[in-house]
Amino acid sequence: MGYKVVVVGATGNVGREMLNILAEREFPIDEIAVLASRKSLGTEVSFGDKTLKTKDLDTFDFTGWDMALFAVGSEATKTYAPKAAAAGCVVIDNSSLYRYDPQVPLIVPEVNADAIMGYSQKNIIANPNCSTAQMVVALKPLHDRAKIKRVVVSTYQSVSGAGKEGMDELWEQTKAVYNPVKNVPPSKFSKQIAFNVIPHIDVFLDDGYTKEEWKMVAETKKIIDPAIKVTATCVRVPVFVGHSESINIEFEEPLDWQEAQDILREAPGIMLIDKREPGGYTTPIEAVGEYATYISRVRQDPTVENGIALWCVSDNLRKGAALNAVQIAETLGNRVLKKG
Ligand code: 2RA
């Protein structure tokens, strides 16, 4: 006995990964529907060894469906998520729309799975921002041991975070460096991304931070502990897939870097690749297509009383979005719906 599952936004980067991961993990499905906007109606998408044709989101009836994995922007989510939830279909939403709603649990299963029980307030569960998801997987086991006081994080975010258009732009701009073209199409980024880095993701806020940086602060507090102080600098880099993060952590209690390694080695969702030698660390290229949050370069940070510095890499389309959403679906099934 399996579930009736809907994937909303099935033709985008994240929607396609959701289908790949549902199939890879053999999520118990009795029936699946793949939805997209009217302009993508009938587009074929892969689900394991099957090919599915997208249906029209605007006219779809969610009645009788168990769960809907949403991978569309906040505007479409605003229109259709309440409709699905009201029809009794639990929404697992990858947009930022409901992440900060006190009546909607924001879940990373390795970190705060118990909070999923709050889903029934709105029949909606929120998926965190990709850069937050991998970071809290790394922070939680260390927080449990030595209580985190402050986090300073710099991110190196791939262009796939900006969708297929972001990936296409990096590809075209890189080619254009070698074969200049005349009419360069309008950019999705504020400056050239090929052979460059851009310290700006999402919109600027009044305090000089960007909304992407604010998300990491607000979501870490909601998922782990509101007392944790976080400051972030989010940077777009010319990488197709895979977000990297340099993280400095200050604890309330002393924590030796080797004990931190031991804790991370055993922690859920983490792969510790950490040798103090050339190549003894993970880079985005090695993380692509994988489930793990990779941790490397663990070392004492001697500039504060109880400090650890580390490097964190993960596939932003997987743990940063689609995998985390499917893991939420698995947790919902195992703990609440209990059909599969
Ligand atoms: C990005 N985290 O990387 C944002 C949204 N996916 O662009």
TrEMBL record:
Q: Which Pfam families does this entry report, sorted A to Z?
A: Semialdhyde_dh, Semialdhyde_dhC
The active site lies at 130 (acyl-thioester intermediate), 243 (proton acceptor)
Which sites bind NADP(+)?
A: 11-14, 39-40, 160-161, 180, 316
* MF GO annotations: aspartate-semialdehyde dehydrogenase activity
Q: Which SMART domains has this protein been placed in? A: Semialdhyde_dh
Keywords, alphabetical: Amino-acid biosynthesis, Diaminopimelate biosynthesis, Lysine biosynthesis, Methionine biosynthesis, NADP, Oxidoreductase, Threonine biosynthesis
Binding residues annotated for substrate, in chain numbering? 157, 236
Q: In which pathway does it act?
A: Amino-acid biosynthesis; L-lysine biosynthesis via DAP pathway; (S)-tetrahydrodipicolinate from L-aspartate: step 2/4; Amino-acid biosynthesis; L-threonine biosynthesis; L-threonine from L-aspartate: step 2/5; Amino-acid biosynthesis; L-methionine biosynthesis via de novo pathway; L-homoserine from L-aspartate: step 2/3
Its EC number is 1.2.1.11
**Binding locations of phosphate:** 99
Check the record and name the InterPro entries matching this protein.
Answer: Asp_semialdehyde_DH (IPR012080), Asp_semialdehyde_DH_beta (IPR005986), NAD(P)-bd_dom_sf (IPR036291), Semialdehyde_DH_NAD-bd (IPR000534), Semialdhyde_DH_dimer_dom (IPR012280)
Could you tell me what reaction this enzyme catalyses? L-aspartate 4-semialdehyde + phosphate + NADP(+) = 4-phospho-L-aspartate + NADPH + H(+)
* Residues annotated as domain Semialdehyde dehydrogenase NAD-binding: 4-119
| NCBIfam families recorded | asd_B (TIGR01296), PRK14874.1 (NF011456)
What is the protein's quaternary organization?
Homodimer.
Family that this chain belongs to? Belongs to the aspartate-semialdehyde dehydrogenase family.
Q: What does this protein do?
A: Catalyzes the NADPH-dependent formation of L-aspartate-semialdehyde (L-ASA) by the reductive dephosphorylation of L-aspartyl-4-phosphate.
Record's protein name: Aspartate-semialdehyde dehydrogenase
